[in-house]
Write a structure and sequence with these properties.
The protein has ten helices and seven strands. It is an alpha/beta fold. Strand 5, helix 5 and strand 6 (about 185-190) form a beta-alpha-beta unit. The longest helix has 17 residues, at about 15-35. The termini are far apart.
Length: about 300
């Protein structure tokens, strides 16, 4: 006589199973929802952290490199570094720091255009802008750019940190690349009005909390130290400022007598309390408006 094994009945589901299934489905949807990286449609893009998308920029707002005067040394160094990167050779992250309106961001955009001259589309350098408020998403962006064969300059304009902002500590690790290392096809360029990008009160807090003074100094320079290339920008003297005005006026066909243009330029800088490339450009915009001259930078 064969003894029957008693039935165990239906297996009871684990109480956390529905929750785990929902989490798995959400992660699956999030991964599949990421848009594919396609950098073939343009040479410039803007990163949107919320959607993890790169939006192409068809026409970059820039000034031709030849019109950027008074920053010849900075131009030569950044151009050389960028060309090496575009050609597949080692290059440094670059920090452009200094006076407001001195041409820092204009130089980055102008250098990219200069490097791309004469290159085939696939060999052209891509400029990817990340906004300051999205700097926490930098690791995600770098992971995505690693997937593309095109060489990129990742650009953050006016990068600085205030108050209790701790994202600068994450940025330090990202610039070093962590375990994977910085993507070989990416360099990071940033502009800042501050040499070390930290507000004075943040630096003082670090000094107060440090056991030794040298620890405070180390913390102060450790972020900017991640940039192998430092380029300083300073206030213009009057001759350089006037040369920039003259160059802009010639390029955009603003025909005024030299003496009148000089007088307008000096008066303009005095009323604004500064001499800079930005102040010069604002004057050119004002003069072009007065003379009913249209300025199309996309054709420059």
């Amino acid at each position: 006589m064969v003894k029957k094994t008693p039935s165990k009945g239906p297996r009871m589901a684990h109480p956390l199973s529905p929750v785990l299934e929902r989490i798995a489905r959400a992660l699956e949807q999030q991964t599949s929802a990421l848009p594919e990286i396609d950098l073939s449609s343009a040479d410039a893009f803007v990163w949107h952290a919320e959607s993890a998308a790169l939006t192409p920029v068809k026409s970059v707002n820039r000034v031709p490199l030849a019109l950027l005067q008074g920053i010849e040394r900075q131009t030569e160094q950044l151009l050389d570094n960028t060309r090496r990167h575009a050609d597949g050779y080692p290059a440094n992250n670059a920090l452009l720091w200094g006076a407001r309106g001195a041409g820092k961001s204009s130089l980055v955009k102008a250098v990219q255009a200069e490097v791309n001259k004469g290159r085939k589309p696939a060999a052209r350098l891509v400029l990817v802008e990340i906004h300051r408020e999205d700097i926490q998403s930098l690791p995600r962006l770098l992971a995505r750019l690693r997937e593309t064969p095109r060489r990129c300059v990742l650009f953050c304009d006016d990068l600085s940190f205030e108050g209790e902002d701790q994202s600068y500590k994450a940025l330090k690790a990202v610039l070093d690349g962590g375990l994977e290392g910085r993507p070989e096809n990416v360099v990071f360029y940033a502009t800042s009005n501050r040499r070390h990008m930290l507000a004075r009160n943040m630096i003082e807090n670090e000094r107060t909390n440090a056991i030794h003074d040298n620890e405070a100094v180390e913390e102060k320079v450790s972020l900017s130290d991640r940039f192998g290339l430092w380029l300083g920008f300073h206030n213009l003297d009057q001759d350089t400022y006037l040369a920039i005005i003259t160059g802009y006026a010639a390029a955009f066909k603003i025909r005024l007598p030299a003496a009148e243009l000089r007088a307008r330029a000096i008066e303009w800088s005095v009323t604004r309390g500064a001499r800079s490339g930005r102040v010069a450009w604002q004057l050119i915009q004002a003069l072009a408006g007065e003379l009913k001259i249209k300025i199309d930078q996309s054709k420059m």
